[in-house]
Structure formats: C-alpha cells, structure tokens
C-alpha cells in the first residue's frame, strides 16, 4: 500500500499463436487429433473433423463454427497422455526470445497471463507447463451450448479484465503478433509489444494511434 492506496500487481498479457509459439496451434491440434482418431479407428469423429475443415475452407461456415464443431467431435480423444504429447509438441515451437522476456518480467514481480483464442483444453496445460500465473482461452464446448464464443477481440479483452480484477492487478504489458488484439491494446495504458508483426498488423494498429514497440 502506497500513501493509503493499494498497490496493484502488474500483469503481462501474452498471446499464444505467432507470439509465444511460432505456429498456429489449432492447426497443430487438428492434425494431432485427426491422426489419433484414425489410429484408433474412430472414423466417424475423424470424418466430422475433416468435414468441418472442408466447410471452413469453402467458406460455408465461420472459423468460430469450425472450431466449435471440432472441439465437440474431439473432446473424448484428448486423454491425459494425448494432452501431454500435444503439449510437448507445442513447447518445441516456443519463441525463446519471448519466453526469456517474460521470465525477466516475472523476476521483476510481474504476473504472466496467457490470453488466447486457442482452446482451453490445451492452452491451460501449456500455460501450466511454462509456470505462468494464469490462462484465459476459448472454453471447452458442449453440443448445445449456444452461448459459446471464441476468446477473441472484445471477448478476450473482457476475459483478461476479469482475470486482472480477480487478482487485484493491472495490465502493464501486452505482447501479441496480431491486430485481433486491438481491443486489448486500446485498453492498455502500459507497453504494447508486437512480435514479428505483419505489415497489415502494423498498419492497422498505427491507424488507431496505438504506441508500440516491435521485437
């Protein structure tokens, strides 16, 4: 407490795909679960995954709907052993420079929050393996869960704010590679760090007069 005011804990919010790791993790998940389903002879579930991908590629369904259908079809295949296998695979794609920077922030007393549109089913184990302080991700879904939303854009901002409020913290740093996180960066009054951003991302963020650095 400083001058009668409670000191809030600084939080670093880090994105997953293209930031903490150098791959699209949901694409890796699709490849992984499809292989496991075929190996175990679960042909109907594998067909549902392949159909969802095909419908998305032909733009008959949204990315969000594709993700929902695939998560529903593959929940049972993700045993603890399979989660361990997938987590190890994703850890092999870690951006070491980003992770080292996060470790330096942690040494200075910051908390690290993984905030991602990736499914919670593998995002949370990954965050735990890296000893992060928290994780907000796209929740697991039930077939009839009409209220389900991807943890992206304004939804992601809301989930981050809920977490930060719950631990009496404040957002000090946002690390991302993509303009999907514009709502988060516009809300942030601290530092914004873009990791290997595309020209489109730099242009989109610059148009909103958001101050950022690039790594």
Question: Key terms for this structure?
Answer:
48% helix; single chain; 6-stranded parallel β-sheet; Rossmann fold; globular; 2 domains; 9 helices; 215 residues; alpha/beta
Describe the protein in words.
With about 220 residues, the chain is α/β, with parallel strands linked by helices. It folds into two domains: about 10-20 and about 95-215, Rossmann fold (3-Layer(aba) Sandwich), CATH 3.40.50; about 25-85. The protein is about 50% helix and about 15% strand. The chain is built from nine helices and six strands, in the order βαααααβαβαβαβαβ. It has helices spanning about 25-40, 45-55, 65-75, 80-90, 95-105, 120-130, 155-165, 180-185, 200-205; strands spanning about 10-15, 110-120, 135-140, 170-175, 190-195, 215. The chain has a six-stranded parallel β-sheet, sandwiched between helices. α8 (about 180-185) links the parallel β4 and β5. α1 packs antiparallel against α2 (about 45-55) and α2 runs antiparallel to α3 (about 65-75). The longest helix is centred in the N-terminal third of the chain and has 15 residues, at about 25-40. The radius of gyration is 18 Å and the shape is globular. It starts with 8 loop residues before the first strand and ends with a strand. The model has no long low-confidence stretch (mean pLDDT about 95).
């Amino acid at each position: 407490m400083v001058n009668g005011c409670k000191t809030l804990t600084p939080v670093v919010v880090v994105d997953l795909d293209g930031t903490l790791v150098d791959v699209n993790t949901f694409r890796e998940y699709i490849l992984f679960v499809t292989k496991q389903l075929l190996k175990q002879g679960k042909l109907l579930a594998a067909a549902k995954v392949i159909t969802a991908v095909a419908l998305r590629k032909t733009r008959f369904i949204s990315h969000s709907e594709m993700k929902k259908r695939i998560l529903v079809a593959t929940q049972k295949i993700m045993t603890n052993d399979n989660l361990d296998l997938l987590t190890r695979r994703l850890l092999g794609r870690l951006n070491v420079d980003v992770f080292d920077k996060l470790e330096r922030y942690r040494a200075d007393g910051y908390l690290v929050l993984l905030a991602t549109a990736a499914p919670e089913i593998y995002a949370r184990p990954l965050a735990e393996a890296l000893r992060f302080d928290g994780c907000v991700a796209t929740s697991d879904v039930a077939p009839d869960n009409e209220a389900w939303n991807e943890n992206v854009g304004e939804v992601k901002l809301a989930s981050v704010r809920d977490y930060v409020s719950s631990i009496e913290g404040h957002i000090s740093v946002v690390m991302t590679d993509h303009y999907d996180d514009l709502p988060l960066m516009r809300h942030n009054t601290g530092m914004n760090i873009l990791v290997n951003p595309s020209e489109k991302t730099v242009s989109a963020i610059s148009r909103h007069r958001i101050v950022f650095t690039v790594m």
